[in-house]
Amino acid sequence: MSPHYIARLDGLGVVRLTGPDARGLLQGQLSNDLDRLGIDTPLLAGLHNPQGRVIAILRLLAGPDGGVLAVLPQGLAPLVATRLKRFVLRAKVVIEDCSDSHAVYGLQEGEQRSLQVLGPGQPAPEGIAMTAADWQARDIALGLPQVYPATSEQFVAQMLNLDLVEGISFTKGCYTGQEIIARAHYRGKVKRRLQRFHTTDASPLKPGDRFRLVDGRTIEVIDAVALPAGGHDLLAVAPLLAPTAEGENAPDPAGLPLLQTEAAALPYDLPDA
Hints:
alpha+beta, globular, Alpha-Beta Plaits, 31% strand, 5-stranded antiparallel beta sheet, 4 helices, 12% helix, single chain, 2 domains
């Protein structure tokens, strides 16, 4: 049997939705199909603005009595709770930011990974301790996107590969931002995508940092983790193709710092530009 590892993820918060209309409200706002959410079936979904840009990425867990727990970076939890409350109207749903009272844990056994949310007084799960950085490093290796306050509303869903990690349903009904996201899926190619890189640079990297690469491309950091041997493993949105002599895919003209990187593999294929 594989070892059972546990990581307390203090950087994550929780927005709780309860009431008979909780799932219906989310169905009209999120990019994935809430009908797929089950006790043993978590769901990844994006909350978008009308322009299809990602406000937050939510890891959804089925709560008691048909409720839903949305796990996301703590810095975005108040914003998301407030934004969702705008759509309550007459719906029978209560939306709460429970980040201060609930704890999020990551559980890993072999290749199986899951999140667990515990309320006040609930005992922590048992297992071999791993750090939040270890958990983050695995998320990055899997090419799982995240959005933080610095990158909220900066990228259309496909730029963060939400379509490649089962974060979008193209068969469900309408939701905020759906028209833009569907148009990018059916009618056009996305020229910038989330990609993984390694760098030996020891300088701290944070979401929203922008750099230029040796090949002339401009990248924006989405997530990064320091490696034990030095340097960083990171996910960044970058053009799929390097600039050409004719100026196509030209880099940002601003004087951005150079970041020496090498491309790293993702567990899924990126579409052509």
